## 1
Amino acid sequence: MDYSSIAELFALAPRVQDAVRAAYRGDSDADIRMREALHVMRESVADGMQPDLKSVSGMTGGQAAKIDPEKALGGRTLARASAIALAVAESNAAMGRIVAAPTAGACGILPGALFATEEAHGYTEDELIDALFTAAGVGRVIAMRASISGAQGGCQAECGSASAMAAAALVQLAGGTKEAMESAIAFAMMNLMGLVCDPVKGLVEVPCVYRNVIGVANALTAADMALAGIVSPIAADEAIDAMGRVGSMLPEALRETGKGGCASCKLRVQ
């Protein structure tokens, strides 16, 4: 049971997570490893929430702890998702142990989406693991059809891909249809298309950790639109292919070389 498109993946089995499991070709340890990945994600949240956390460069760290969900303009779930995404990204910048989902630069988006909605809606760990399998399937398609590398396709290939993976996982958790899931993937990809990779000082810190926050917010809104019955006018596979083409058009200065975009700006805070 193999697939190279969202359409093929969704056609393989009634439940997307089961189709992804089948692609492991009988690997009995797949669920064990996915559960371990979920536990590592939880640990990286706790690590990143420490107010005294600092990256080696000192540019980031300790900021996730400042977000107060009770005072947030966007509501508690979005604030928690933002804080968790930022915490995991800051943990990564401080050399903590994270799950690359699909990359280290975008590591906070999927945990932010999963754990914030778990808190809000009471999802079980088994449901979260099913959601991780679905996210993994979506990520595999993106990697095969386009890219998940910032050096190859810009930050759209990292945070954009992670956001699409998280959007699909959220729709599944909420009991949405495959059609809604497909629209959520497309919305998430379209919304961050063209996002460049421009790390300051060549480090995965600025603006990277903050883009994890916008990535999880994008996933939540993409899922909400799809669950409301809004259908993407562009198919998910078409959006993924477009992202790949846009990535190939980006100049070298905007593909993780530290030359253009934010990388060419002076920092106010060192």
Note: The chain has a mean pLDDT of 96.
## 2
Amino acid sequence: MCTAMTLFAGEHYFGRNLDLEYSYHEQVVITPRRYPFCFRTMGRMDTHYAMIGMAYVADDYPLYYDAVNEKGLAMAGLNFPGNACYHPYAAGKDNIAPFELIPYILGKCADLSEARELFGRISLVNLDYSKELPLTPLHFMAADAAGSLTIEPTAEGLMVYENPVGVLTNNPVFPMQLLHLANYRHLTAGEGHDTFAPILTLPPYSRGMGALGMPGDWSSQSRFVRAAFLRGNSRCAHGERAGISQFFRILDGVAMVRGSVLVEGGKEEITVYSSCCNTQKGIYYYTTYTNRAITAVDLYGVNLDASTLSAYDLIKEERITKQN
């Protein structure tokens, strides 16, 4: 289970929670412009836009969970079990394996308009990365400062939806998520109104009662509602520190606490990491479950005309500042 989000707070930010009961050796990975991407059916891409994001590097290949390119276009892949459908090779299409989609789009497209056009030519094909790393059922969110899209590979094909909410979780399919939001149209960040019965006067006994009825469980639908409410009502001071702080606060509202969600075998699902990238500056911020201090990696801190990856291990040990 995961939550992705886009937010404009003076500048444009994009990021996500990765919620899992296990972890690969995730790293913040910078792919420079001349790193050669070798696609399974689409040949080589020797030059492309540089990108930064969270990835698992397998055989020197960055398997990106989320990333942003130097032009400010961002993408994330989220679990989509039971609905994701990948297809055989289709003549006349750009046949891309799901693990190739993020670098393919971010390598070629400068903005959401170009990405929208390219998505129309793509078929996600059923090709595993390897026997040890089979395909994961995914759908995707893409965003820039102008808006966001949800991209869902289904039995009917690759469905592309405008995403006015700026949030994506997991199941069900995105149109149903939007429809489900109408169940909470009465929620408000204010005090709300007493409409229970005209013969009664029911004064509020606490602040925050305008949001009574907001779902508090960890299901993907409930997280979608909470994240949409928090993002949609967000008020943020200007400045980079305020923007990233607000972004992480919203993600905290849908983050997994160890022990609150148990999966098969009694394993604990947690928020392995949270990310927030300033897409206009190329600065990738992250926290981990065991380290709440924010760490930053700058896309422009390396030679972007190089041909080799730059990878940074996550700082997972809690950093605490002592004041006395």
Note: The chain has a mean pLDDT of 95.
## 3
Amino acid sequence: MLLEMNLTEAKEGKRISAKGYAVQHKDDSFKPFSFSRHPLGDKDVLIEILYAGICHSDIHSARSEWKEGIYPMVPGHEIAGRVVAVGKDVSKFSVGDFAGVGCMVNSCGECSACKASNEQFCERGKTVYTYDCHDYFHNNEPTYGGYSNNIVLKEDFALKVPKYAPLDKVAPLLCAGITTYSPLRFSKIKSGDKVAIAGFGGLGVMGLKYALKFGAEVSIFARNKNKEKEALKLGAKALYDSLDVNEKFDFILSTIPTKYDPMKYISLLKHGGEMAIVGLPPMNEAVKNDMTRLVFEPNKKVYGSLIGGIKETQEMLDFSLKHGIYPETQIISADKINDAYHDLTNGKAKFRYVIDMKTL
């Protein structure tokens, strides 16, 4: 019934009715929430959301741990679904196609970063994130994410998903996949490299799988040995719960979302090694490092990495599907989001929770 109403709204140029789960403030729990999205534009697609992954970024955002959030907030930037309506000038999708949505839904499209498909670095500051963001192109209304039944966005920011793809596993690729794939590609990880993954949650698992496919020898650093069996089964050389190891690495990928000291990992790099940081602890837990410490770890490179542009995200998705690289997932119903958040913040979650949106 709601889908039929959405199709009528899209055809008549009206706002699109939506329902999902939201928090009303940073200390709130998730509850059902009804809202609307901007009308379907000439270059927009309307996607019926079938699956949405839960990312640790969702937790940080919902709890205003990075910045003061925009409430009510509907998180979710790991989205997979079916195109149910298209604007009159859409050429990339047809009704019935599968599509994915990651962390962005628009940008200026005109600056050098956007033209190079680095939309996440829009030089005009016009990157529109999938949720908890003001939509600069639609009267600055707040964006609402994937814990919902639909989404409307510019076709250029939707990812093409083949009909054979397992949508429940595609959804988490659109953050967890690209977040780890991008720095591994940037640092040109290749056969024979010694790689370490710091943190072994949803991001760490994907980092391990991609690094192995690129031919690297991969070790895991985790806070305990609880997931050692899983890590070894997936192909890791070893899982360490201490930094007291007699190894040096060509590359370290830090996915840690809690308080830690990056310098302790930098000391494990080989001369000329690189470390990419993709995990973001809460701002009040971030370690303030004295940059002069780097003088005593010379000729090592440290950089941050923020998802990837649309072109690279599509490349990652195609690569993952070709090689069967998927996250380890657990499907939950929408009314279990609060339980999932509890498990993720208390170290009880195995890997990636994915919400089945048919349960809304």
Note: The chain has a mean pLDDT of 95.
## 4
Amino acid sequence: MKEGTRRWILLGSFTLLLAALAVVLVFLNGGAPKLSAAEPRIEVTPEPKTEEDAVRMRTPAPTAVRTVETPRPIYPEKAVNLLVNGSPLFAVDSREAAEQLVRMYLNECAYENLDANAVLLTASVDAEISTVPADGSAEYLAFDAAFNKLRKNRSLIPVRRTVERVAVLTETPAPQSTRSAQLFFGTRLFRQCGVASRTLVFTETLYKDGLAVSETETLNTPVLSGVAQNLLIGAYAVGTDMTEPEPSEGVRGPATSLSFQAPIRGTLVGYFGLATGEARYGVDYTAFPDTRVVAPEDGTVVFLGERPGYGYIIEIRHEEGFTSRLSFNAVPNLTDLALGKHVQKGSTLATLNPLEDASECVLHYELLIDGVPYNPLFYLP
């Protein structure tokens, strides 16, 4: 074979080999030519085969969310959360601070609005209080801020307390008045001024969150019985144009076993009755200075001293409701008289002491029975 023919044969074989290699590469690439960068790529969405595929194709794929961590607040090293019934209220500096805070809050709530008639019986926190180390889940508050927050909102830590109060109830009995034939017309005599009854009433009040929710009466104790006012109104009528009353003026009093004597040896100068329109509730004696004044009957000294409208007075209480009242127009010279001393009939009580430049002394003597004045002459011999 010639040399030229051999070259052409080798060149053709090499060309066929390159063509075959190109076919193999096309097959390996999917049998389709690659799109150039300038050619747009068209994507075809396959038809859903089932309803689930349709839902899945309509639902967008979840988008990844980037989580940003919030920096944890800086608390004191021993900070704790104050828990009320297991729920965090706020964080404070330490467990000791939380305990002090609750104690101060309870003490303020316990003694709130207590007046002079109120007594605190019980006070307690009406919730479960506890502490745990602060974990950043509750707001941190300084001590004063935490205390003010509790004071402004009592429901945060409810407090239950019981307060006892005492009240004085008074009731005045209706006054009584009686017309008396022993008193001169137009005069009025209080035999009893009257006293109101008094009762102590104890109550217990239950407070929650600062508000009263119930009140119970626990004790009702009478401490003073009332006494009605007793007034005597004079009904004894005598003429007012008389210059001096008669010795037998007035109404006789009740009979008695007592035997009275005149308190002084002197001259009767004024009788029981109305004298020139003014009531005289006893008799008047005049005597010389240093004349003895004696006890009209056995009795006990119940008053020594001056009284408006009378001057100096000695009062002696006898039996059966009788009282002798001796009045001087000057301070007498007393013996050894004293309040509460028992004196015997006829014993010396004092001697008359005249006023300056007076030659005679005056003794006024009244006899009262149960507080009502009677004419002493009805009981003297």
Note: Confidence is low (pLDDT under 50) at residues 31-40.
